[in-house]
Protein: Expansin
Organism: Gossypium darwinii
Amino acid sequence: MATLKLFFSFLMVTVHLISSMAANRHMLMGNQMIDPNWYDAHATFYGDMTGGDTMQGACGYGDLFKQGYGLQTTALSTALFNNGLTCGACFEIKCFNDPQWCYPKAGSVIVTATNFCPPNYSKPEGNWCNPPLKHFDLSKPMFTKLAYYKAGIIPVKYRRVLCYKKGGVQFQIKGNPYWTLVLLYNVGGAGDIKDVKIKGSSTGSWLQMSRNWGVNWQTGAKLVGQSLSFQVTTSDGKMIEFDTVVPANWQFNQVFDGKKNF
């Protein structure tokens, strides 16, 4: 009997230690990757339920369905967009403190920043995307998961969360023989990119790329006929090296799978 009691005591201690380790790991990930605090903002929607008007946009993405984002997207106001540096980041959003319009027990939605909600200085009020206001212009399907569409605008709480994407980071090569522009999408982890380096099979060293706009990064190096590798760093400082993901016979406008993700 004493042996059985000792076994159960040992089991309880082990379970407690495992739970504590898991909690500490979660807290560490929160400190490194997401902000656990909720912040106040407002949300509207644009487009219809098909999401057609949400395609393309100021981040440089194209067909959001083909690129893996679907309808789980949002445009950001100036205060959140950060001149495009926030493109690709993920946010958890919930309707807050508006019983007239918020769905009861609606929970939250997680969306990726794919567009910009521009400011409007032509009228004295109702300019929700003007600085310094924090505002989300959601796709209509996302808005209507939180509130009745007739609300038009709702108060929300939001926080940054990790992005979970299927498959590897995708690299679309654009430009011309004298200038290479690379669109990066389907980026997991922090989601937003702060640095990209490129290396051709004949360059011998890593070349610093500069951000052209949104998630498009550029270099003036002549890289046609070379296989290409990339070093991509997200806003949390995590870097992944994608070795020879683009073969030497690549053509402009082709898309290549990095086969790894954050």
User: Anything to note?
Assistant: Residues 1-33 have pLDDT under 50 and may be disordered. The CA atoms of residues 131 and 178 lie 38 Å apart. The helical segments are 2-33, 78-81, 140-146.
